[in-house]
């Protein structure tokens, strides 16, 4: 895949970030309107619109509060979700030297460097600005790759930062989390309500409302995943190409990806939204039907395809 240029990629990602900032709240409002529509269809469209207009400000406020909290505390959230912590210079000068040399060569500000105490091989970049940009490496990837291979992996993650991929992904993770949270809460409430035996119309209506919320939240979650899917796959190819251009050693990155593909699983990572940040998906490989279905919604292209492209670079 031909690298389209840094400024073009940054401009595209800034545009996508803006569209996501508009698109996700708009999707939420559409689903809220549908909730009142299906719940009060017998009362007429005017009553539906009136109920929606009454609820819309609260929905927007809730989304804004969620987004603000996640925006300012996403670094701590990601560290907790991945089990990562700061890597001190005195602990590993080799890693710092590789990062600094690459940053100096391209005029990039030095990001924070974190480490995951896991023997598997994986890495990711995160952050929304120079104050929070972070490159995180597993112990395994530090110890098992040679200098050229590790340099290629670090360059790949620096390209995600330079291309503004990380900011785009943080925005998508925040909004996808809203639908996931609403779906989970509605499902748990529905289960609790189902255990209570009651024939009252009031409780029956409440269960129906909760079930409707669950269905709409799941629909929103699936649509938001498709949004995320649309922005995720191409970024890996672009970061690979950018890293090859930065280091002039595409075969070293191809070799690193080959080693990573054999053992990418990070034990601490349980959330799929965080998993998309990594250079390769860090969870258990799927088998059978799950493999075919999962590939449709995979946030990463097949690592074999990435290796082939790098070998032709």
How would you characterize this protein structure?
There is one protein chain. This protein has 313 residues and is mainly alpha-helical. Helices cover 70% and strands 5% of the residues. It is built from eleven helices and four strands, in the order ααβαβββαααααααα. It has helices spanning 6-39, 45-82, 93-106, 139-144, 147-162, 165-194, 201-247, 250-262, 272-275, 289-296, 303-311; strands at residues 84-86, 112-116, 123-126, 134-138. The chain has a four-stranded mixed sheet with strand order 1-2-4-3, sandwiched between helices. The longest helix has 47 residues, at 201-247. It is elongated, with a radius of gyration of 22 Å. The termini are close together. The model is unreliable at 287-293 (pLDDT under 50).
Overall geometry: elongated
Number of structural domains: 1
Main beta sheet: strand number and arrangement? 4 strands, mixed
Strand percentage lies at 5-15%
- What pattern of helices and strands is seen along the backbone? HHEHEEEHHHHHHHH
Percent helix, as a range, is 55-70%
Rg, Å, rounded: 22 Å
SS-based class: mainly alpha
How many helical stretches? 11
Arithmetic mean of pLDDT: 82
How far is the first residue's CA from the last residue's CA? Answer: 8 Å
| Order of adjacent strands in the largest pleated sheet | 1-2-4-3
């Amino acid at each position: 895949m031909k690298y389209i240029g840094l400024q073009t990629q940054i401009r595209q990602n800034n545009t996508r970030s803006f569209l996501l900032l508009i698109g996700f709240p708009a999707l939420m409002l559409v689903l809220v309107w549908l909730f009142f529509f299906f719940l009060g269809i017998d009362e007429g469209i005017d009553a539906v619109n009136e109920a929606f207009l009454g609820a819309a400000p609260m929905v927007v406020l809730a989304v804004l509060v969620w987004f603000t909290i996640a925006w300012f505390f996403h670094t701590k959230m990601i560290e907790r979700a991945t089990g990562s912590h700061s890597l001190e210079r005195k602990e590993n000068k080799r890693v710092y030297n590789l990062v600094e040399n690459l940053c100096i060569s391209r005029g990039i500000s030095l990001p924070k460097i974190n480490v995951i105490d896991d023997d598997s091989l994986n890495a990711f970049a995160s952050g929304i600005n120079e104050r929070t940009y972070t490159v995180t490496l597993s112990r395994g990837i530090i110890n098992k790759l040679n200098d050229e291979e590790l340099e290629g992996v670090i360059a790949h993650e620096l390209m995600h930062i330079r291309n503004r991929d990380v900011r785009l992904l943080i925005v998508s993770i925040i909004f996808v989390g809203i639908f996931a949270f609403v779906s989970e809460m509605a499902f748990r409430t529905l289960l609790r309500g189902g255990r209570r035996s009651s024939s009252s119309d009031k409780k029956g209506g409440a269960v129906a409302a909760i079930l409707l919320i669950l269905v709409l939240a799941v629909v929103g979650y699936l649509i938001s995943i498709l949004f995320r899917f649309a922005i995720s796959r191409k970024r890996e190819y672009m970061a690979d190409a950018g890293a090859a251009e930065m280091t002039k050693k595409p075969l070293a990155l191809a070799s690193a990806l080959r080693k990573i593909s054999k053992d990418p699983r990070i034990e601490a990572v349980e959330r799929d939204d965080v998993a998309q940040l990594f250079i390769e998906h860090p969870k258990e490989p799927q088998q059978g039907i799950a493999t075919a279905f999962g590939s449709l919604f995979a946030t990463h292209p097949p690592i074999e395809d990435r290796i082939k492209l790098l070998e032709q670079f």
